[in-house]
Amino acid sequence: MFATPAYAQAAGGAASGGGAAMFLQFLPLVAIFAIMYLLLFRPQQQRMKQHRAAIDAVRKGDTVVTGGGLIGKVVKVDETEAEVEIANGVKVRVVKATISEVRPLASSKPAND
């Protein structure tokens, strides 16, 4: 029930192994966070940056897909909004932040069928 003085001293001495032992205990945890950053967070930040650049570069004539799934041709671009023609004579105003995909202007070459 009671610990002997020799056992108590040995247990206390093992617990105070120093800073190097403590660092080695946290090393796997630090490695996991580093791997998660490299595999998950950094690529996601790069995709977000590319998407933001594509949204900011929207111009008249581009085909866009909105978050709601509407596909249309950009007719007019403002600071925060774009006017999109989704059918002949049917134009809607969309907030640029809701655009999920920008398809650049089609080339002038005819499509091969």
UniProtKB/TrEMBL annotation:
Subcellular location: Cell membrane
InterPro entries per UniProt: Cell/Rod_1, Preprotein_translocase_YajC
Record flagged with keyword Phosphoprotein: no
SMART domains per UniProt: YajC
UniProt membrane topology term: Single-pass membrane protein
Subunit structure: Part of the SecDF-YidC-YajC translocase complex. The SecDF-YidC-YajC translocase forms a supercomplex with SecYEG, called the holo-translocon (HTL).
Family: Belongs to the YajC family.
Protein name: Sec translocon accessory complex subunit YajC
Originating organism: Sphingomonas naphthae
Underlying gene: yajC
